[in-house]
Amino acid sequence: MNRKDFSRIVLFIAIFVLVELSLNALFVKWSRTRLGYKKTRTSFEMVQDQVSIVIIGDSHPEYAVQPYQFENGYNFATAAENYFLQYYKMKHYLDGGEFHPDIVVVPIDPHLFLSSQLDKVGGHDPAFWIEYVDYIDLGHQTGTLQNQLVTILKARFSLAGGLRVLKMVLWQDREREAVPKISGFDPWERDFSSLSEKDQKQESINRATFQFRRHQYLDENAILYFCKLIDLLEEKDSQVVLVWYPTTGTYLESVENYIDVDAHLDHVKALLSDHPSVLLLDYHDLLPDHLEYYADPDHLNGLGSEKFTQILVDDLMDVGLPVFPVDE
Amino acid sequence: MNFLSLEFLVIVLGSLVVYGLFPRPWRWGVLLAASYIFYAFWNWQYLWVLVVITLSTFWVSHRMALQEDDRRRKFWLMFGLAVTVGFLAAFKYYDYLIHAINSFLTRELRLPLIDQVAPIGIAFFSLQVIAYLVDVYRGRQNPAKHLGHYALFIAFFPQQIAGPITRAQKLLPQFQHLQTIQLETLRAGFHRVLLGFLQKFVIADRLAEFTSPIFADHTAYSSLLLLANLFIYAIQIYSDFAGYSNIVIGIAKMFGVDLAENFRQPYLALEIADFWNRWHISLSNWLRDYIFYPTMRFLRKRMKNNRSWVLIWVPPLVTMLVSGLWHGTGPKFVLWGLLHGVMLSLSVTTSRWRKRIKKRLGKVKWLFTFTEWLVTFIFLVFSWVFFRLPGIGSGLAYLRQIAVFSTSGGFVEPEIVGVAIAVLMLFLVLEALIYFEFTLERLLELPLVVRWGVYYLLILLVMFMGNFTTSQPFIYQQF
Which H/E stretch holds residue B224? Predict the structure, then answer.
């Protein structure tokens, strides 16, 4: 192969990278205005300086807390958002200077402490998260630099497999379009109790198996980022409230096959020895048999979130935190 | 490691660069090192299997060639085959057999299991080695002169996982005279890889989104959907394996190495024998040369009547039974093989009769040809059910569910149906282009700007439409 051929190959690749990056940038920008979790971000940024109570975390808090039941609340939780993502997202906004929450509600559900959570970081729309997450730092901190470099590549070439995003835009988010997000909240209207007992049990087993099987509980990286998140929030003078969200009894029974559920709270408390001011609220066994409050084994539905939010607000007020319910 | 991992990309690109920098006499070393590194990424604990098979069969082939006496030659052949087949049997079939035996024994008497996953690609490189040993024994192939070239013949990294099963006659001379990297071979290889990516990641893996949930819980779907699912799976498995074959043939081509071809539009076959000349060609040819013909010769020597039913039925049945067992252990693969064996024999039995009918039909013989094609295609589609589902029981339950004409059941999400329809249309376009020989090579007649534009469009199509999030491992990788 001569020099001319070689130059031609280099030129071919260079043009391709340029075309791809340009199309990718357009694609990311276009999809951002359409996808639910991206809309949540846009709407949050419009009101971030007014938010005093923020709910963060994954789908458990996302569907559990109705932020419009209290003043200046915002539910900023999105599906599969683990401690790694929560940490960098909070850091991004807290360092930005406009966001000064009085209270930050952080989930402590057991699945967030599994080793699988770090693996999920790369698969969770890197093109969106790259604006928050310092993947190089994450790689150094967790010893997964190679994986994080691949995630950066995925973010810059997110057009790969982009059909998934297009499908989400065209179909999955159409329903959301009809229900405007209020303070980041969009209830899940499904009644788990309408399923047969057999299906309820099977769905619970499937869910627990999917989350817990073959994954190490109390993973050191998950704990590291949980602690970093608490440190960060306290450093910024926010009151940290840790919440273990309610789930169905059948789900908890299935989780018991993998971890000792009763010991979970003690494990979390052990991590908080240097954080005496952190408030810990355990609701995991609050509504185990009221299946009409659930959309699936481990997510509250609209009815459940209404009930749960009232309880949460009352409890926060009882301990003297500045939470002000919105009058009907 | 899969074909889209960073490791694989690094190995391919790194090997290409290093290969280009090394002088010709040492290029085999670069490829061998890359091949062993690639194998080690899969499972470094099994590298010794590759090395032991390489060294032992290289030595055996030389011992065999030195013998004048046919008995001694046969002894060395048997020894070499015992080593190769021994490894294959131990890793692939031993546990299955012992499980079956243990089920009749009390706990104290139970035999120990190996309980290890088989070394990746063992079913493929074992067949290459068997072919080499038999060919040396028959005098059709000289023993490999160079141990490095022979080691590369067994371990060559593009074909390591799932073939194509390429004969020594084709590969060894190429390894003796490895070429420099040229733009033409790079381009030809790139064309094949691009086609392979389209077939694997866009067609096969997108269709898998449709078929996998249905196969996982087929009792929950209507008969019509189950039927449609079988046809879609037939296209998925073809695109998956043909895509894999095109990718590996393309990568080998970039190094100037030609591997055996594996597919020639198999679903256009008019009869089952024709199908096996078009599907997994490298395996079919191997089975023909080392199972079918020897069985036929063996029987012919012992049969007085050359038209005996034994000669028509036994060789195809034995060959397809071996094919079934090669694909996997368990009754379902035996059944799948036997079904194909029966169809092959029926096709031979009825060939004269069919020819006569066609002659009589005159102008409307196309109708008969079409019927032949349809019968073959429907048989193939239905036979895949035993290939895909975990056992004969579940396969039969699936077919029963179709037969009861149930109209109620779950549905597939509209977006997955929409994507499947788009992908099926793409499949048809691609097959039509291949049929009319409108390959990417034809692009060379076009101006550079147009050519590059088409390349970019195809790459972006693969990137955008490809399923990289739930991408399946190559189906044939498991064998």
Answer: helix B223-254
**Strand (E) or helix (H) holding A104:** strand A103-107
Residues 6+ apart with CB under 8 A from B110: B102
Whether the model pTM is above 0.90: no
- Does residue B323 surpass a pLDDT of 50? yes
User: Edge-to-edge strand order for the sheet containing A239-244?
Assistant: A73-75, A53-55, A103-107, A239-244, A279-282
Which amino acid is present at A316? L
Residue by residue, DSSP assigns A29-81 as HHHHTTSHHHHHHHHHHHHGGG--EEE-SSHHHHHH--GGGBTTEEE---TT-
Longest dimension (CA), chain B: 75
A150, A163, A169, A175, best to mutate vs chain B, most B CBs in 10 Å: A163
DSSP character at residue B113: P
CA distance B181 to chain A (A): 6
Q: Does B220 touch chain A (CB under 8 A)?
A: no
Say yes or no: B216 contacts chain A, CB-CB below 8 A. no
Proportion of chain A above pLDDT 90, given as a percent: 50
Average pLDDT of span B407-423: 82
In the prediction, which pLDDT does A263 show? 93
Decide if A103 contacts A238 (C-beta within 8 A).
yes
C-alpha dihedral (B231, B240, B275, B156), degrees to nearest 10:
-170
Omega before residue A180 within 30° of 0, cis: no
Chain B environment of A150 (Cβ under 8 Å): 6
Among A123-127, B145-149, B291-295, B447-451, the least confident range: A123-127
A136: which 2 tokens?
A: 């190089």
A105 membership: H or E segment, kind and range: strand A103-107
Query: A120-179: per-residue pLDDT in tens?
Result: 877 677 888 888 999 999 999 999 898 888 888 888 887 777 777 777 666 655 555 544
Q: What is the pLDDT of residues B184-223, one digit of tens each?
A: 899 999 999 999 999 998 999 999 989 988 888 877 788 8
Gap between the Cα atoms of A247 and A298, Å rounded:
5
Burial state string for B212-245 with b = 16 or more CB within 10 A and e = fewer than 16: ebbbeebeebbbebbbbbbbbbbbbbbbbbbbbb
Q: What is the mean pLDDT of the segment spanning B44-55?
A: 88
Active site residue B99: no
The vertex-A105 CA angle with A104 and A110, nearest 5°, equals 140
**CA dist., res. A21 & res. A28, Å (int):** 10
Beta-ladder partners of A53: A73, A103
ipTM of the complex: 0.73
Which two three-digit tokens encode residue A159? 């057009």
pLDDT score for A303: 93
